[in-house]
Design a protein that fits this description.
Length: about 240
């Protein structure tokens, strides 16, 4: 496995020598599966073969093509997104890899709180595959108490191009979103964030680890929409709370 403190340079592409080192390492120092916590030489991406089928990542045919929330009609916008068509200050496309529950939640928590960053490699690959040929001029991580968002931004930059700009700041005196009810989150989001004007331009990718109500991301998108040089904003999120 890669260092716990950083993503590998090329997720999904490893040299034969690297593969050999990893294989020998597993043989003599078997990793623990983060889901069942058993040591197993067959662990890949921190999951054993028995637990791997329980990591459910979204595919494009089972989610709304705009908001990435589950929707059974392939290729059609969900009712909520149809109602927002043409609305100013909204994101263009939001990519979400998984629901924040079960095995997916275990892996995201390991990356966020345990610094095991490559635990979310499958999520990142899922997002990159769905982002496809899109390229971005600016990548903006949502501010967080943890370092995961910034490191995710660096991973996306390596594959998608663009400049990482920490253009959004969180007011230090504002309540943390995680401590608030759903209604209070919505009310608080606009007051929490501040934009460093003049630093963001072109096609923007906004990066976050987990979204609950979507209030923080929506507030960030509205702030970015006020910047004259911003053309559009997409969002990439590891997981959402169902």
């Amino acid at each position: 496995m890669s260092s716990r403190g950083e993503f590998p340079e090329g997720i999904g592409s490893r040299s034969p020598l690297s593969f050999l080192r990893r294989s020998l390492g597993r043989l003599f120092f078997p990793q623990h599966c983060l889901s069942c916590e058993r040591a197993d030489t067959r662990v890949e991406s921190w999951l054993c073969p028995e637990c791997r089928p329980y990591l459910f990542l979204y595919s494009p045919d089972e989610v709304c093509p705009r908001c990435s929330l589950p929707y059974p009609h392939e290729g059609e916008l969900c009712p909520a997104c149809r109602g927002e068509a043409g609305t100013e200050g909204r994101y263009r496309v939001r990519f979400i890899a998984a629901a924040y529950e079960g095995t997916a939640r275990t892996l995201v928590m390991a990356a966020k709180f345990g610094n095991i960053l490559d635990a979310v490699n499958p999520f990142v690959e899922n997002l990159l595959e769905r982002i496809g040929e899109r390229r971005y001029d600016t990548i903006v991580p949502i501010p967080s108490d943890h370092s995961l968002n910034g490191r995710l931004a660096r991973c996306f930059r390596r594959r998608l191009g663009g400049e990482i700009v920490r253009a959004i700041r969180r007011r230090r005196t504002a309540p943390r979103q995680g401590t608030l009810s759903r209604i209070r989150r919505l009310e608080n989001a606009e007051r929490v964030l501040r934009l460093r004007s003049g630093r963001v331009s072109g096609m923007v990718l906004l990066v976050d680890d987990v979204t609950t109500t979507g209030a923080t991301l929506d507030a960030a998108v509205r702030l970015l929409a006020r910047e004259p040089a911003v053309v559009s904003t997409d969002i990439a999120v590891l997981a959402h709370t169902p």
